[in-house]
Each structure stands twice: as structure tokens, then as C-alpha cells.
Amino acid sequence: MVLPVNLLPDDANPEWMNKADNAWQLTSATLVGLQSVPGLVILYGSIVKKKWALNSAFMAFYAFGAVLFCWVGWAYHMSFGKHLLPFLGQPNTSLAQKFLLKPAFLGKFPNATMVYFQFAFAAITLILIAGALLGRMNFRAWMLFVPLWLTTSYTVCAYSIWSPKGWLYMLGLIDYAGGYVIHLSSGVAGFTAAYWVGARQKKDRERFPPNNILLMLAGAGLLWMGWTGFNGGGPYAASMDASLAVLNTHLCTSTSLLTWLMLDILYFGKPSVIGATQGMITGLVCITPAAGVVQGWAAIIMGIMSGTIPWYTMMHLHKQIRLLKQVDDTMAVFHTHAIAGSLGGILAGFFADPELSRIFVSVDDWPRNIGVAYGLATGRTTAGFRQMGIQLLGIGFVILVNVFTTSTICLLIRFLIPLRLEDDDLRVGDDAIHGEEAYALWGNGERLENSRHNSVYNMEDLPPVVPKDGDAGGDQVVQNS
Fold first, then answer.
1. Which of 301-329 are b and which e, b meaning 16 or more Cβ less than 10 Å from the residue's Cβ?
2. Which are the contacts of 469, defined by CB distance < 8 A and separation ≥ 6?
């Protein structure tokens, strides 16, 4: 092995680095990455109408790759780098060895680990936004949207809330693992973008059956179990608080799923599989801003509320409020992420245990977070309501930033290329956009007859194979170049 001249062999494990913390953070980052690829790729590709399966999955797949390129190019430093503004860091690349092998801004591991971990969070945020736009957005417009939104919106919220120099961080906002930065942001941005892109075709909006519910459950399972790294990586350490966060995450999620399921049975008479999946997602989202700073009994209450309030807004308020009816939010990310994320942020301000907050942060100058419930119980009422005020301020800030930046981006892209696909492409789906189909084989292996790109891959259109000496010719593999 050849080592750089400025890196001695005994520096491979410096004293400031904790091997267990580094290993756990890398594992957590990979678990979060698996939520996106393949988790949400599978979920999106299977929960939509068959003709949109490939396009929906590929929107997620593209975003994952595009975000990493932008992240190391400039966006990581804008989110966590040197101070430029109270809500933004200075843009810079994250490729220099001297930077990557130094200690991260928090935690006992190198910057390379932190860049990887935070990338996984940034990537899943864009993929969640895609959920609101499935079934009609121009893919070329999506290719522009991803880097623009990451640069102008995600970096602002991440720096403000998670960077030690961000203004909301210094106020003491509680966002344990992304209820604000990821879920509220993606829910609001997705809903706003859906407004500008426009609705699906009337036929698709009225009837949009999943093409494979069993596969949808596989994607949902990856999302659920991957959340172990999502919230378990929040403390940047393999600590007791990480263990508590993981347990609270699954406790809240199971409670939310069961609550949503019971409501479906009571009001609609049938236990809906898709409904239970929505309840799972709202539970995961709701606990995220509070996972390691609340006790188990609070996680159960949060699960009951996350299975009830988003269910009510989706099943009842959505039909009564004109704006919600007007905007075609394909995966209902407004309800499952914006509503559930806001709910989790508010409940974090109510249930936050000051002792758990101290264990989580372990920074001397951090405000001692105390929820309203503990403030009332201990006579620190002012401190409790101050924390709730900060939580509400954070919600307002994230909403304003995302409505403004998302609207600006969509208007800019619309000036260059259409945001929405042409009606002819909307009728066809995957084959019109990509020249490929998710389920291309029918019957005994023949392709769908009416594919406009069928001849490109039709074996009958290829030149005959000339067998070599000694070959029978029947087992030749023909590759179309």
C-alpha cells in the first residue's frame, strides 16, 4: 500500500478518532442510503400505475446519484462549512485529503465519514420531493430541479438548524435527525412543486392503482428498517442515546401503523395495506425530530398522534380545503411528511426530557432543552414555553424558505423547458419517456406489440447469427450494439 507523504502509518487511527463511533456512523449512513436505493426506488416503482413504474423509480435513482456529485462539489460546505451568513456556509469542494482526514465538526470521526453520512440525508430529501411529482413531471426538468433545490433550499435549512453556527441551532431548536431539515422541507417543497408542475391526467388522477403491492411492502420494509440508521446516527456516536433513539423510532412507528390501521377498519370497513404503509411512514417521520430526547411512553403517545392527525388531514381535511384538492400530490407527501414532521417538531417541544437533551448534545454552550411538560412539572414554565416558541419559529422558517425557493426554481425551469410532460407522453408513460418499460416481457417472452421502441430490442430485427466452426448456432447470445 502506498501512503501519501504527509500521512504516516501510525496516523491511520489517530487518538481523536473513536473506532466504534466511526464504524457506527458509516453503518448508519449506509442504512440511510439503502432507504433510498433500493428502498424508495422499489416503493415508488411499485406503488404507481404500471405505465409509470420505471419513470418513478428512475426519478429516485437519478436524484441519489446527482446529489452526491453536487454534495462533494459545493453543497456540503454550504450546509456545514465556514460561516458565510447566519443561514448559509461558504461553498467549497469536499475532496481535499487534508480536509477529509481531519476531525468532523462534531463527533469523533473524520470529515470523510460526516460528508458521506450527511449526503445520505440530502439525497433522501430530494427523493421524497419526487414522491409528490410522480406521473407527470418532465424528467429533464427534474434533472435541473435536483441540483438547484439542493443548492438553494436544502443547504439553507441544514446550515440554519444543524450547523453549530446556524441561527436556529444556536437558539436551541430540537431537530434530532431531520424532522425539519428533511421531512418538513420535502413535504412543503413537494407540495409547492406539484402546484407549479400541474396535475396528472384526469384518468390517472381518478384511478392510479399500484402495480405490485407485495413489492411495495418490500420497499416499505427497507424504509422502516433503514430508519435505524436515520435516527440512530443522530448523536454522531455509538452511544446510549443512539440506542434509545432506535428503540423509540420503532416503538412510535409500530404504534402509528396500528392506529392508522384501526382507523381504516373503523371508518372504511377494511384493513388497507397501503393505509398501514402510510401509517408506518407518518410514525417514522413524527419521531424523527425527537427520537433521542423523549422517553418511551412519549414515543407511544407520538405514535398514536402520528397515526391519527395525518390520517384525518389526508382522509377528511384534504377533501374540504380547496388548495389541497387543487394540488395533485401523488404520494401525499404533504400529509405524510410536512404534517407529520411539523407534528413531531411540536411534540418534541412538549415532551423533550432535559436530561436526555444533555446526553444527546454534550456541548457546554448548548441551551438546556426542556419540553413544556417537564417545564410545568419542574416549575420551569418559561423555559418550556420558550422551547415551544423556538420549535414553532423553526416550522415557519422552513415553510417560508421552501415555498420561496421551490417556486423560484420551478418558474426558472419553466422559462427554459416545460415542467410537465406533453399529453401524448402522459398517455403512454415509461416507453414514451425512456424508451423502456418496467414489465417488458409478456406471455412466453415476447415484447409488448405496441411499444414505439420495440424494434430496437426485437430479436427478429437483428441480423442472423453466423455460427462459428463447431458451434451449433442455437446457443449464441446476440448483443445489440
1. ebbebbbbbbbebbbeebeeeeebeebbb
2. none
Query: Structurally, what CATH architecture does the domain formed by 18-425 represent?
Result: Orthogonal Bundle (1.10)
Task: Say how far apart CA 54 and CA 211 lie, in whole Å.
Answer: 11
Residue type at position 19: K
In whole angstroms, give the CA distance from residue 115 to residue 278: 30
pTM above 0.85, yes or no: yes
What are the start-end ranges of the H helices in 53-175? 53-70, 76-80, 97-100, 111-130, 139-149, 155-162, 167-171
**Residues 6+ positions from 329 with CB-CB distance below 8 Å:** 132, 190, 191, 194, 335
Rounded to 10 deg, the angle between the 273-287 and 340-351 helix axes is 40
With cut-offs at 50, 70 and 90, classify the pLDDT of residue 29: very high
Whether pLDDT at 97 is above 50: yes
How far apart, in whole angstroms, are the C-alpha atoms of residue 406 and residue 133? 13
Q: By the 8 A CB rule, do 186 and 129 touch? A: yes
Neighbours of 192 (CB within 10 A): 23
Mention every residue, 6+ apart, whose C-beta is less than 8 A from residue 473: 465, 466, 467
For the stretch 121-167, pLDDT in tens is: 999 999 999 999 999 999 999 999 999 999 999 999 999 999 999 99
Domain boundaries, the chain: 18-425
Range of weakest confidence among 2-11, 178-187, 216-225: 2-11
Share of the chain above pLDDT 90, in %: 80
Number of H helices, E strands in the chain: 25, 4
Copy the grid coordinates of residue 44.
Answer: 415508488
Distance (Å, whole) CA 58 – CA 65: 11
